[in-house]
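Folds vary. Our protein:
___
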Amino acid sequence: MEIVSVPISSCSKDNQKIYQEWFNYADSDNDGRITGADAIKFFAMSQLSRPELKQVWAIADSKRQGFLGFREFITAMQMVSLAQAGNEITLDILKATGVTYEVGQWALPFIDQTLKEDLENLEPPSMEGLKALLNKNKVSTNNCELELNGDSRPQPTPSTPWFTSKSIKKAPLTSVTSIIDGLERLYNEKLKPLEVTYRFNDFVSPLLTHSDFDAKPMVMLLGQYSTGKTTFIKHLLGCNFPGAHIGPEPTTDRFVVVMSGPDERSIPGNTIAVNAEMPFNGLTTFGGAFLSKFECSQMPHPLLEHITFVDTPGVLSGEKQRTQRSYDFTGVISWFAAKCDLILLLFDPHKLDISDEFKRVIASLRGNDDKIRVVLNKADQVDTQQLMRVYGALMWSLGKVLNTPEVVRVYIGSFNDKPVNETAAGPIGKDLFEKEQDNLLADLIDIPKKACDRRINEFVKRARAAKIHAYIIGHLKKEMPAMMGKAKAQQRLTDNLEDEFAKIQREFHLPAGDFPSVEHFREVLNSYSIDKFEKLKPRMIQAVDDMLGYDIPELLKNFRNPYE
């Protein structure tokens, strides 16, 4: 798979130097990001209309991060040049400045070659008054350097304290420079204290770290052995990745995270789990038995700069599933499912049966139904008539395990480097596979663009789950006696947990669908003493309500398109 990122590669080195100087000037706080306020001041010099600048921003900030990095700034400047030349800024331009995907004999024509050459030869736009401002900025910079060389450094005033950590107030939310940064601050200030107080990390999900907010979008592949999970990743990358093993037998016996890195190498699980720069610290809770079956495969690849893949061991079936794994397999799947942006369930036309372990795996995806896509792989191994029957049997099997009234999206194809077997598939099948592959790849292309929206969605889901968890813990604590009979009371509450959930739901008017699994909650609760839990603190609940009702909408408002 070849990916060409157009904006930088379609800009000459001379123009890159010019744009770098412009970017440094527009970036008022020197954080490598141009926010809406910076853009309004800088883009005004282009003399374009507000609707045109609105479209320019929408194209440049296609990921809806709320800011422009250097790449996005170049895209914006190229769009400004095209608009000044009389071109209409349309969706076709957006596709042309996106990413080109070529997979085997298929290609998604997201770029016009003529337009790409035009972008390479495109002169920087006309920015009225910018040259004078840059010259003025250079003079002031030179004066500052002269003062420093002359050692005329400003002396601290007597009123300046040496240690001011206590006197520093929290910076307002408007001071953050991206939506993700704003979510991280809200989490640390308002949501994390609630999670820590009521041990949300022990019952539901580990506490979030900086690497969780900064991580690239992830795609997880699930399926029985030999359904083509590893081959699928290799097909997308166009090459092997470190640690890849492909064969008809269960070759992948571990979880492999395939991500971008400076060179090709495999990193052991224990090393990844303690690396603060990677979002896998929470996996330490599954113990050394799991970490020995976990590794990270790093390699430099354009696709991996945008997406991280998670290859999983084949789900066991038949006699093999009676052999217990040495770690909580479904627990690990559930952990990754919460972190991933897309979950692909792969099936083979000759392996449509859903084993008991596969049922447990699918059940562990509860709450992440919107991320699930089903892939009927190796579909060219059967003819058209058999494929129709296989598709019907697959939908029937899925209907028994996926407890949703909606029909799940199923992609049909043969996702490997071999040409389609036209003898079996026929001309109709070949055309169908090409369209299905294009649709699936389009889904993958959209993942980085939707990553920010997905983070917001997952953050709000987590906040609601943490709030309900606090209500549950506070209610159980309130039901405990003050002095005698604590053990009996705990046993009664644990046994009648479903009824207690119903009481909480009625008392606080909470939706039943947001409550955790009774069995899982009971299992974790058995290892704790309810009497040692904290009472419900309405002030903490109110802080989270304020965050959901005011802070997050305000954050999104601050980082929307500045020309809306």
The CA atoms of residues 156 and 348 lie 72 Å apart. Residues 1-9, 96-114, 152-169 have pLDDT under 50 and may be disordered. The longest strand covers residues 218-223.
